């Protein structure tokens, strides 16, 4: 997204900064390597030359959610063993010999690691019209605090990546789901289409007495 100084249609003599979606295609591995300390584009797409019925390129969108801490400075010799963490996202040409971003054996020799991910990008190969691999770094930095006792809250403590179809289909593919149900107004209580409405009739469950609660009466006594 970029701001463009544009003339206002209703006031041609006046201008305003308006956000505009700008498309940029990256064609090499170095261009597609987004470092952790740089601004990431709002929309990341891996697109093909094929189009859907609306004329848009079929693509998948990468949505990254990450709250990792700062990366180890590259001046440190041990950083080579974890060079994958330099990048939020890196797109490389698929190669059979580039199967993992790291190795279990890196911890045995961190200064000359068995797998140095940065080498995957240094050759700067063309990624246009090729089979691609998306390397995504995601995570979070958790500092222990009192509210972690007795259990650490998971809300807000996480990271991940979502691979979403974007113009890949002609419409929402879920409408063709075999178990899709269409309920018209007034048929919410009908067992024909909405089996949940008749769950009590179909479920085999015991009949329990109504639940009552009287606090701690007769269980605990507190004396002055």
From TrEMBL:
This is Amine oxidase. Belongs to the copper/topaquinone oxidase family. It is an enzyme of class 1 (oxidoreductase). Keywords: Copper, Metal-binding, Oxidoreductase, TPQ. GO terms for molecular function: copper ion binding; primary methylamine oxidase activity; quinone binding. The keyword Oxidoreductase applies. Its EC number is 1.4.3.-. Topaquinone (TPQ) is generated by copper-dependent autoxidation of a specific tyrosyl residue. Residues 13-175 form the Copper amine oxidase catalytic domain. One of its GO terms (biological process) is amine metabolic process. One of its GO terms (cellular component) is plasma membrane. The lineage of its organism: Eukaryota, Metazoa, Chordata, Craniata, Vertebrata. The keyword Oxidoreductase applies. Contains 1 topaquinone per subunit. It holds the Pfam family Cu_amine_oxid. Its cofactor is Cu cation. PANTHER family: COPPER AMINE OXIDASE, RETINA-SPECIFIC COPPER AMINE OXIDASE. Gene3D superfamilies: Copper amine oxidase, catalytic domain. PROSITE patterns: COPPER_AMINE_OXID_2. SUPFAM superfamilies: Amine oxidase catalytic domain (SSF49998).
